[in-house]
Amino acid sequence: MSVTKIQSIPTKPTAEATLDRLALRLEIEDFNARYCHALDDGDLQSWPDFFTEDGFYSITARENFDDNLPVGLVYCEGRGMMKDRAFAIANTAMFAPRYLRHHLSNTRVIAERADGVIEATTNYIVLQVLHDDPVSTIHQAGYYVDEFCRTETGALLLQKRICVYENLMIPNAVVLPI
Amino acid sequence: MGWLRAISVSELQEKGCAAVLLNGLNVALFHLDGDYFATGNVCTHQFALLTEGHVEDGCVECPLHQGLFDIRTGKAQGSPVTKDIPTYAVKVEDDTLYVDTDLPGQNATITEPEAPKTTTTLSTIVIVGAGQAAGRAAEAMRDAGFGGTICMIGDEASAPYERPPLSKAVLMGAANADASALFSSDRLATLNIDLITNTRVDNLDRKAKVLSLSDGKTVAYDALLLATGARARPLPVPGADLKGVHYLRTLDDATRLKTALEKAQSLVIIGAGFIGLEVASSARHMGKTVTILEREERVMTRVLPETASTIIAQRATAQGVNIHVGVQLEKLSGTGGHVDSVLLANGDSISADLVLVGIGAIPNTELAQEAGLSVRDGIVVDAQGRTSDAHIWAAGDVARYPHARYDGPGRLESWHNAEEQGRCAGRSMIGLPTDYSALPWFWSDQFGGSIQVVGIPQSTNKTALREGTQSEGPAVFCLDENNRLTAVIGFDNPTAISLGRKTIPQQKSIDPAMLTGSSPQPEQNDLEEQESEEMSISNRYRWPDAGAEAIPDWVYTDETIYEREVERIFHGRTWNYVALEAEIPNTGDFVRSNVGPTPVVVVRGENGEINVFENRCAHRAAEFCREKRGNATEFVCPYHQWTYDLEGNLSGVPFRRGVAGKGGMGKDFKPEDHGVKKLFVTTRRGVVFASFAEGMESIEDYMGPEILTDFDAAFDGRKLKILGYYRNTLPGNWKLYHENLKDPYHATLLHTFLVTFGLLVAGNKSEMICDATGRHGTMASAKSDGKKVDEATRKEMRAYREGMGLNEPRFMDFIEEFDSPWSVTMQTIWPNLIVQREMNTLGVRQIVPQGPHSMIMNWTMFGYEGDDEEMTRHRLRQGNLMGPAGFLGLEDNEAIKFVQDGMKHSSGGDHLVALDPDTPTGTSDTLISESAIRGMYQYWRKEMGL
Fold first, then answer.
1. N or C, which terminus of chain B has less Cβ within 10 Å?
2. Spatial distance between the Cα atoms of B222 and B151, rounded to a whole number of angstroms
3. Model pTM greater than 0.90?
4. Chain A neighbors of B891, CB-CB under 8 A
5. Is B111 domain-assigned?
6. Do A175 and B890 touch (CB under 8 A)?
7. Higher pLDDT, B482 or B822
8. Predicted local confidence at residue B143, as pLDDT
9. For A16-165, which CATH class?
């Protein structure tokens, strides 16, 4: 597969290339802002809509990711599984009430593949506040390993998102998607 | 006889207690808080008048050995007294107290809180040996309601008897054999023991659980107690087989010695131990010439420090005993086959009509040894008296047990040990909580005085001497290097012994001057404080009266309880999961793991064996292995570069010999003594377990057949393929995780996911399976057709609630691959492993406790080599059910946290586990049961001695 790597660039890029690169990064950041809003404040049921029909989503520890161990805390093949999870979390799961808030940074476009797929990573921290505990704690700290594609109308959609967390221990439970 | 005038009330009020003789009986009268009481006045342990003792807190203390009796009820309050004294009715008329010795005291019917009764299902318990430990074990079983057969096999002619009188009263003719019997004939009859006398046990077949006897018969057992005692060590010099050379161990020995002693004039005793000195005392009492020959430089070298030896030797010498120390024996010589003199290496000859040999005892371990039990100068047992075979216990002189307060295990040859350990083993055998941690106590009556020892003195101990006074003899206090009291030797000095009993367990540094009386005694308040501190754990932590149906909060929240769990459970006789073999396939492959909270390294050694050792440098304790996993040829502590091989042996110490001849380790430094601590290791079907305890039963015996079946269904011989790890903290007590998986009641109530989507439907076959001990469990269920979800069931699932079908129901498919009637088994393998076989998603979970309030769960998810990609992905998809983000897993974690929160912040109380009373403990075939939780706590209490 032919891949255009966007890496540290030895010579000064053209202004146009720089603008394209920044525009793509901003587009991804904008996508992620909407994605996080859906999880933090919005409608959990809309979360699967950020993915393609056959999109893949998982949350896994850095130790697994680095060693190519495939397990996921959450492991969804396709939007159907994501819908089942969103429904189950909203309607059947028992957990203590909480606020979660995502903080993203350092979005980096790694590659734009010839098939149009955009590879990118973004760092994240998710803070959690339990309603009976005044302290806000780091629920997860890690980074997204993403593959985006575009719809017919040109909008971005995730065809793959792996949330790689680096905190060794999950504090008790991960309830909502990251 | 009716009412007899006993004393004037005013006289009794003035004296507090008084001794009277009524109707030929020694009666003690007490004035206590305005009331009057009459009891028997003779201690039930040895002859002494209680009124010469001490009254405190409603109890009278015997002056001789500090046995305590409740004055109101006559109840014996514990060792050394076990038999109650009688109480008599009293009445006051005018100024006179009357006693009726035919009527019991008005309070005699006050009953103590009911002791727990056994629920054991064992039917035949066999005891090899018929001594004191044997007798007390049998008695303890009957007292706890054991109704099965107790068979006791002894190689002597008599029923259990006590040995202390043999060298004293029996020898001097003051008591006959009956007087030393452990039980009266009436008591013996009620105990209903099948007693086989004059018979040896020649063979123990542990597999068949059968004993072969010297008369050719066999006896089968469900549980076995080895109380085979010890035998006298034979004298290894020529002439030891002459007539007139005696040993003293059994009633027969005593009778023979008594007869011989009556005719003899001179007695030579070889060995200045307790037996030798007591016989010397008796023989002097009978007017014989007595000489003691001792190989060491002083008497009692083996067991007492020099200060105490000196006092004993002085007392014996003062009574006319000749003591020769530092003596080498050449031989015994005689005429006509009868000994007449003892020849020493220096050429001296001492004439003797009789020789008594008292040079120690050898534990009778042959039967155990030949049967392959763990034996090292005694049969190795744990605090419950259990040997390396889960069905066999040992107690008394022959048992090598872990002294709670001393370094390393040991044996104790004493009346008190036989008494208490026997009783403990008996209780343990029938499944009751026990804990043998009694403070060792010993007494020896000799030369008109009584020597008592509490604690275990070491001959090398530092000592402080308290001089005798007019009313009491001297006392020797033994202290360790930190000035902590380890033992007290009192010579007619009950005060010092009593101080020792209170102070030794505290293990606090103490000013020796305070002990010897050269500085003021501690204030009364201090003493009371000390008393409450040393109250044993079992007194402080009282199980609720509701029994098995209640679990008190302190089980989950208390630091002391947690520390005891680490010591007794995780570091005790358990197999702890540490890794899967698939994680470390090659030599040098390692993972960091834990046994309880303790970090260990699990590594594949040079020879392919798996080694587990503590992750703690022998030099400065650094946790040297920092990588979660990897491959190593050796382990180097980064701090000072101490190096360990793959077995944990110390292989390198930098600058061991110093630099330029200066510094470095001493010449006597041996690296082989300084490896890291190694654990015992076993594996089953690719699962690795480790234990701090020596002589553990096999992992198969440890799990038991009920659990092994389903364990083997998951680990069915296919090689494992690691799919990855989850790790989570869980702010709840570690036992709550076991309970969650021994609580099928919660499945449909907490996990509404299952119900909402119709995944757990009525009619699903299920069972909560427990092993015989109650520690392990398997929560099992089967899809309604027993195997696979068929189309009809799937429709039922979809239709369960309108519009609530799964978009991707295939993730709940069960692909048949196991030899098991169950589609789901969740196994709790004590104390730290969960084996998850949730249809096709498989994993092990390791519990790492982090104090009473929190634990870590390490999940290792796996499939099998040979799984194709689709099967692996199916396992991963199904993995959404479990783990800290699983539909079921997250709810369990949240619920457990809620339980701990409930205890931390509430006003406190007990948990109620009363479901399914028809199944008190163990396996249950209804979901609506808590019998497995009750069974687990029955076991836990036993292990914890609570």
1. N
2. 11
3. no
4. 93-95
5. no
6. yes
7. B822
8. 87
9. alpha beta
